[in-house]
Every structure is written in structure tokens, then in C-alpha cells.
């Protein structure tokens, strides 16, 4: 198991927790804003707008450049293990996906449903079917990947917006069963259900076949998404 740390001196330190020692000190071209470990590689999103990768089999080798741009920088990066994809958050409020099964891993950029401002945090559910994002606009967005097989299909996703009225989200994470999204600001921690289909099925059973308009369904679903709030 590895622990990764970085600082404003541009260095990235890799710690082997089993050996309780530093195994490598990496020197990328710029400050690493975010990083993630995949199966055998360490990916870092740099301040200069690039994503670089080191091979854990030989960390002494220079990193390979996965992506480079001059228009935005990365604030978070996560790995979808079940799909072997990377997902990144940018200062333009957008997400970029990279399919690591392909070479080169051409990014798919999601512009629809983006945050109005910096997207700074992403959470991936353990089952790989949901992604949550948080931005400076105080909105949580829930992205449903259950029927997505290829990165090219991602552009059809419309996220569910969940405004957080009590402040800017400081942290977000899914539970181990991928059923709930947990997030907190400087006042509260909240828990919300993520499986919309289960909510639809429950409502249909309760309504016993009654037909609802789109507006009525929106009202009921919004109401059902209000989970109990836990204060610190």
C-alpha cells in the first residue's frame, strides 16, 4: 500500500506503508494539484494543464504525458477501476474522461451540465455506476453511468443537480454499497440516496398505478431525495 504526498516545491513523494519508507521522490514539471493510483501507474494532474503518469515497476523513469492543454487546469482526478477509465475535474467546471484501454487515450469532454466555476472534487461509487461532483457554485451533481459502456456515450448524460443551500461542499463520498452519497459543508453532514430507479419503483408501488405528470414526478422525486441531516 502506498501513500502519496506533494508540496509547492513540485515534488511528489511515494511512501511504501508496508516498509515504512520512502520509495521515490518524483519531480514533475509543475505542481501536482491531484493524483490517483491505478493498477500499476501513478497519474498526476499538474497545474500547467497536463496529466502525467509514472510506472510503479520503475519509478526512476521519466513520466509519460497522457494529456496536455493550455486552456484549463485539473483540480481532481479519480480512477474507475471496473472500466479502466480516468475522470478529471477542471477549473472550467467540466469533466474529462480518459479510456486507458485505448492508445492514445483521447479525452471525452462533458460540457453539458457543467458547474458554473471550478469543479474541485469528484467521488466515484465503489460499483463504478455513479459519479458525484462538487463545485464553487455550491451544487452537487450526480452522474448516472449505469448504462454507459463506452466513453463516447458519456455525452448523453444529463446530471441530477442537488443545490447545497448551507454552504460550499468540503468533502463527498459514496458508501461501500454505492447506495448513498455522503457530503459535508462547514455546518452539516448530509446523506442522500443515489439510485433514482429504486425511488421510482417505490413511488409506483405506493401510487398503485396512478399516472403522474412530469411535474408531479419531479415534485415527488425531489421530496424523496431529502434525507435526514446529521449535524456535527
Looking at CATH, the homologous superfamily is YVTN repeat-like/Quinoprotein amine dehydrogenase
The residue ranges in which pLDDT falls below 50 over 5 or more consecutive positions are 225-232
CATH topology, which one?
A: Methylamine Dehydrogenase, Chain H
Residue share in β-strands: 35-45%
Number of strands: 19
How does CATH name the architecture?
7 Propeller
State the shape: globular
Main sheet properties: 4 strands, antiparallel
CATH class: Mainly Beta
Radius of gyration: 19 Å
Q: In terms of structural class, how would the helical and strand content be classed?
A: mainly beta
Quaternary structure: single chain
Number of helix segments?
2
Our measurement of the CA-to-CA distance between the termini, rounded to an integer number of angstroms, reads 31 Å
Strand arrangement in the largest pleated sheet: 4-5-6-7
Topology:
Elements (H helix, E strand, L loop, with lengths): L1 E5 L5 E5 L4 E6 L5 E6 L3 E6 L3 E6 L8 E5 L5 E7 L4 E6 L4 E5 L8 E3 L8 E6 L5 E6 L3 E6 L15 E4 L7 E4 L5 E5 L3 E6 L2 H12 L6 H11 L4 E3 L1
Antiparallel strand pairs: 1-2, 2-3, 4-5, 5-6, 6-7, 8-9, 9-10, 10-11, 12-13, 13-14, 14-15, 16-17, 17-18, 18-19
Structure description:
- Helix content is 10%, strand content 43%.
- The radius of gyration is 19 Å and the shape is globular.
- The protein contains 2 helices and 19 strands.
- The protein has 232 residues and is mainly β.
- The protein has helices at residues 196-207, 214-224; strands at residues 2-6, 12-16, 21-26, 32-37, 41-46, 50-55, 64-68, 74-80, 85-90, 95-99, 108-110, 119-124, 130-135, 139-144, 160-163, 171-174, 180-184, 188-193, 229-231.
- It has one domain (2-194): YVTN repeat-like/Quinoprotein amine dehydrogenase (Methylamine Dehydrogenase, Chain H), CATH 2.130.10.10.
